[in-house]
Every structure is written in structure tokens, then in C-alpha cells.
Amino acid sequence: MRAARPEIPVRAENGLEPELMQDLIEGRIDIGVMYTPQSRPALKLERLFEEKRVMVSTDPKGKPEPQPGYVYVDWGPEFYAKHSACFPNFGGPPLTANIGWLGLQHVLENGGSGYFPKRIVQPHLKAKRLSLIEKAPEFSMPAYVVYPLDCDRDLFGIALEIMHWVAKPKTTIRSSKTPPNRSGRAR
Fold first, then answer.
1. Count of CB atoms within 10 A of residue 158's CB?
2. Which of 138, 120, 135 is nearest to 62 (CA)?
């Protein structure tokens, strides 16, 4: 966005989905990215990408269910429902994190396991700092971009186009490594 429209200031924030939704409704933020947005009359929900959550562990021989040292990341109600269905006897984690990177840092620094986006743990798997737990269920979760229906179509169109370009899997990105410009062509 900064390259396409350098005169437009960008402020990026991290937050929990209920707060992000409230900020969108009240106009404090313009665009939100989240996994389980609430459908609201004045907001447009647009699918951005599909993300796969996988169980990883610092123990290469880890078991395909939560073990001591398991960190539960609260990825929202859909993840909770899927997780509960796959692990009905799970009594609760010793540690819960509401932000994925906090849980991942804990696992990397202290050992253990947890569910994280495959795209995020891929470098740690390649470096053998983490191992993918075989036979553990995987959970697919769509991510959505949410924005007001009543918005500046020119400005928001550019921002959304860039977000969709960034979200594309690396294997499908155009040969150009630069995002589209205002006309929609790669720069």
C-alpha cells in the first residue's frame, strides 16, 4: 500500500476479533483481517485465504494428541469446536495463549507442542526446530478481510487488491514479485 499510495498513512494493529469487529463498527479502523468475523449489515466480509493449522512439537517423536507441554492457542470458536471434536477427552491445557506467535515463542523457547498455521511454522520445520506430528488432525480455517460497505472504492480497492496479492500462495503469485499498481497490473 505504501508503494502504491505513499501519501496515505497506514496504521497496522493486532487485536482480538471482538475488539476488531467493534472498532470496524465504530469506524476506528478501516479494514480488519480475521478468522471468525461476525456478519454485520454495514460490513462486507470477503474471503482472503485458507489457512491450515497443524500440530507441531519440539519432540520429533511427539504423539498426535495434546501432551504435557501442549500450548492451546485460542484461534476462535470454529477452531475450538473442531479441536474439541477431535480431542473429546482433552482436560485442558497447562497454558493457553490468545495470540499465536506468543504460543509459538513459548513452545520454541520451552519445548512442547501446539497447533499453528503451517505457513508460519514452515521455516522452523525446515530448520528442524519443530517437527510436524504425523497422524495429528489438521484444521483448515478461512481468513477474511472485513471492511465497511460504505467506503472509498478507489482507495479500498487498491488496499484489498494488494492484500489479496500478498495472501496468494507463493506458487501462484505472478512472475513479478511486486504487487499490482493502481491499474491492477503488476508493477
1. 20
2. 135
**Residue 50 CA from chain centroid, whole number:** 9
> 146: which strand partners?
32, 45
> The C-alpha cell of 155 is what?
482507495
Chain Cα centroid distance, residue 40: 21
Pair 104, 116: CB distance under 8 Å: yes
The letter for the amino acid at 162 is I
Q: What is the pLDDT of residues 41-58, one digit of tens each?
A: 899 999 999 999 999 999
pLDDT in tens, 100-149: 999 999 999 999 999 999 999 999 999 999 999 999 999 999 999 999 99
Give the Cα-Cα-Cα angle 49, 53, 54 (nearest 5 degrees): 145
Distance between CA atoms of residues 124 and 16, nearest Å: 25
Residue 76: name the closest of 20, 28, 27, 121 by CA: 20
Alpha-carbon radius of gyration of the chain: 19
Cα gap 49→142, rounded to integer Å: 6
The β-bridge partners of 71 are 95, 114
